[in-house]
Design brief:
The chain is an alpha/beta fold and about 325 residues long. The chain contains 13 helices and 11 strands. Bound molecules: phosphoric acid mono(formamide)ester (CP).
Length: about 325
C-alpha cells in the first residue's frame, strides 16, 4: 500500500479485514515492523479519537510518534505553484512536505472541508499537494471528502456484530445545529458498497450525497421506511451537496429515538462520534445496549494499526 486516502488504496478488503481482526487479538505481535520508524501526525482541526487511536496504533507496533497542530504551530502554508510569496504565507507546501518526510516514515494528515467551495473541497487540494511533495507514505486522518480510517473501523465493527452474512445497514441523516462535511457519509457509503451487505441511505430531500458515492444505492426520503428491518442504523448529519454546505433547522424529527429503533430488526446503533446528545440521537438509544459507538471508537486503533503495517510494507 503506497498511501491510504480512500478505499481505492485497498487491494483486497477481506485480507485487510482479516489482518485487522488478527491485530486486534494480538496487538503487540507486530512490534518489529515499526521499530525505529517514526509516524508524523499533522492536524489542521480538533480531534479526539483520530489523534489518540492513531498514536496508540503506532505505539502498539513500536513506532515513535510526533504530533503537530500544523495550523496553529506551523508556518502558514502556500499551496499555489509559482506564487510570489510576499503576503501572509511563509512556507510552501513543497518544502514543508519534503522536510517532514526527512523526519518521518509515514505521515498522517487531517484536513476538513471548508464547505464554501464544492470544487475546491472535492479536489482535495491540500491532501493531493501534500502527497505529491511527500517522500514517504501518507495516511488520511480525514480529508475534505473522505474519512477512510473511520470507515474501516466501522466496517470491522459491523463484521464483528453482524448476525447474518447480508445485514441491512442504513445510513441515516440526522439533525445537527451546524453545517458538517460529507466526509464520513461519503466514505461509509464507499466502504459499504464494497461489501455484500444490503446498504441503503435515508436523508431528507435536498440532502442527497454526491452520486459518485451513492451509485446503485437506494436512497429513501422517508426515514421510517428505510429503518424497517435494519440490522445496523448509522446516524450522521451532513450538509447539502447540491446547495453546497447548507444546513437546516428543519427535520428535527429525523433524530434517532427508541421509537425509531423499534421499527428496525433490533438494530445496533452506530455513529462516528463526537455526537450531540438529544439532537442526533436520544440518550435512551446512545446509552442503551444496542449502541456500538464505543466499540467503533475502539476499532479505530486496530484499523489504524493495520493500515500503518501495510504502509510500512507488511505483507500478509
Ligand atoms: N470520529 C472522529 O474522527 O473523531 P475525532 O474527530 O475526535 O478524531
Amino acid at each position: 500500500m503506497k498511501n491510504f486516502i480512500s478505499l481505492n488504496d485497498v487491494n483486497y478488503l477481506d485480507q485487510l479485514k482479516n489482518l485487522a481482526l488478527h491485530v486486534k487479538q494480538n496487538p503487540f505481535a507486530y512490534k518489529k515492523y515499526g521499530k525505529n520508524k517514526t509516524l508524523g501526525l499533522l492536524f489542521f482541526n480538533p480531534s479526539l479519537r483520530t489523534r489518540l487511536s492513531t498514536q496508540k496504533a503506532a505505539f502498539n507496533i513500536g513506532m515513535n510518534v510526533m504530533v503537530m497542530n500544523i495550523d496553529k504551530d506551523g508556518w502558514a502554508l502556500e499551496m499555489e505553484d509559482g506564487t510570489v510569496m510576499n503576503q501572509g504565507k511563509q512556507e510552501h507546501i513543497k518544502e514543508a512536505a519534503a522536510v517532514i518526510s526527512q523526519y518521518c516514515d509515514v505521515i498522517g494528515v487531517r484536513t476538513f472541508a471548508g464547505l464554501t467551495n464544492k470544487e475546491e473541497d472535492y479536489s482535495e487540494t491540500f491532501l493531493n499537494k501534500f502527497m505529491k511533495h511527500s517522500l514517504v507514505p501518507v495516511v488520511s486522518l480525514e480529508s475534505a471528502t473522505l474519512h477512510p480510517l473511520q470507515s474501516f473501523a466501522d466496517y470491522l465493527t459491523i463484521e464483528e456484530h453482524k448476525k447474518t452474512n447480508k445485514p441491512k445497514v442504513v445510513l441515516t441523516w440526522a439533525p445537527h445545529p451546524k453545517a458538517l462535511p460529507q466526509a464520513v457519509p461519503n466514505s461509509f457509503a464507499q466502504w459499504m458498497r464494497a461489501t455484500d451487505y444490503e446498504f441503503v441511505i435515508a436523508n431528507p430531500k435536498g440532502f442527497d450525497l454526491s452520486e459518485k458515492f451513492t451509485e446503485n444505492v437506494t436512497v429513501y426520503h422517508n426515514q421510517d421506511e428505510a429503518l424497517k428491518n435494519a440490522d445496523f442504523v448509522y446516524a450522521k448529519n451532513w450538509s447539502a451537496y447540491d446547495t453546497y454546505g447548507k444546513t437546516t433547522a428543519q427535520f428535527k424529527h429525523w433524530k434517532i429515538t427508541s421509537e425509531k429503533m423499534q421499527l428496525s430488526n433490533q438494530a445496533k446503533f452506530m455513529h462516528c462520534l463526537p455526537i450531540r446528545r438529544n439532537v442526533v440521537v436520544a440518550d435512551s438509544v446512545l446509552d442503551g445496549d444496542s449502541s456500538l459507538v464505543i466499540q467503533q471508537a475502539n476499532n479505530r486503533t486496530f484499523a489504524a494499526q493495520t493500515v500503518l503495517l501495510k504502509l510500512l510494507g507488511y505483507e500478509n
